Amino acid sequence: MHITKMHGLGNDFIVIEERAADPAGLARGLCRRRLSVGADGLLLVEPSEIADVKMRIINADGSEAEMCGNGVRCFARYVYDKGIVKTPDMAIETLAGVVRPRLVVENGEVAAVRVDMGVPSFAAADVPVLADDPLDFEVCGQRAASVLCGVPHTLVLTDELETAEIGTAGPRIEKDPLFPRGTNVNFVRLIDRHTAQMRTWERGAGRTLACGTGAAGCAALLHKKGLAANEIDMHVQAGVLHIELAPDGHAFMTGAAAYVFEGETF
Ligand SMILES: N[C@@H](CCC[C@H](N)C(=O)O)C(=O)O
């Protein structure tokens, strides 16, 4: 099988065009670190009847996610470079609806990808979260807030990011019964109204180096709570995701999308 490994700020993916009979099994096999290619998930290229192309995201544990922010930037660059989509502005179908990336080309090179991520929702039924107030509730002993940004996200504000219990509190919150479909968990340290640092524990993938839907969702939550401006740099471990929140509620994410290698699996 021909594969292409890519990453968006260290959140890494295996892009596959060939139809897989068992995408969940393939993800569990190929995504294993050290024993196989290793990745946070698979990105499957499929035809679409409503957009230029369709992206499916299969997490490392075999579960299928509705959307992936870092993934869609890599995917947009891939389908453009392979000539599957001929324009740098494109529409990509996902299980969360159609998202619209635009390649930012400088000196003939793709410098970044800017994505209209749609309108994040703070409604409890949309996330979904079984909390009276999704903007302020308690889970596993932590004050939290939740948002749907393609996929469910929960934000925990902390002053001590390095000691935040990402690997212990993360999985407990991910699977807490308050979240009927699970949740991604973001530990966020607010530096000022335009800058925050974040570390993410992902549903179906565990600790990852970056999360695009998480960065956009948390920026929208911070803005909604009056803590941040409408443009904010979300610093993840390997770089920065720039988030802009438009007056109509749309969140725009800009960040890198890079190749690692291309090859054949046995
Ligand atoms: N890393 C992603 C989110 C991928 C989906 C997530 N694991 C889930 O199941 O919700 C991103 O960059 O947005």
UniProtKB/TrEMBL annotation:
SUPFAM superfamilies, alphabetized: Diaminopimelate epimerase-like
Subunit note: Homodimer.
Gene3D superfamilies assigned: Diaminopimelate Epimerase, Chain A, domain 1
Function: Catalyzes the stereoinversion of LL-2,6-diaminopimelate (L,L-DAP) to meso-diaminopimelate (meso-DAP), a precursor of L-lysine and an essential component of the bacterial peptidoglycan.
One GO CC term, this protein: cytosol
Record: active site: C68, C68 (proton donor), C211 (proton acceptor)
Marked site: Could be important to modulate the pK values of the two catalytic cysteine residues: H153, E202
Protein name, UniProt field: Diaminopimelate epimerase
Pfam families linked to this entry: DAP_epimerase
Entry superkingdom: Bacteria
Single GO MF annotation: diaminopimelate epimerase activity
Family named by the database record: Belongs to the diaminopimelate epimerase family.
UniProt keyword terms in alphabetical order: Amino-acid biosynthesis, Cytoplasm, Isomerase, Lysine biosynthesis
Catalytic activity: (2S,6S)-2,6-diaminopimelate = meso-2,6-diaminopimelate
Source organism: Christensenella minuta
Main localisation: cytoplasm
E.C. numbers: 5.1.1.7
GO annotation terms (biological process): lysine biosynthetic process via diaminopimelate
Pathway(s) annotated for this protein in UniProt: Amino-acid biosynthesis; L-lysine biosynthesis via DAP pathway; DL-2,6-diaminopimelate from LL-2,6-diaminopimelate: step 1/1
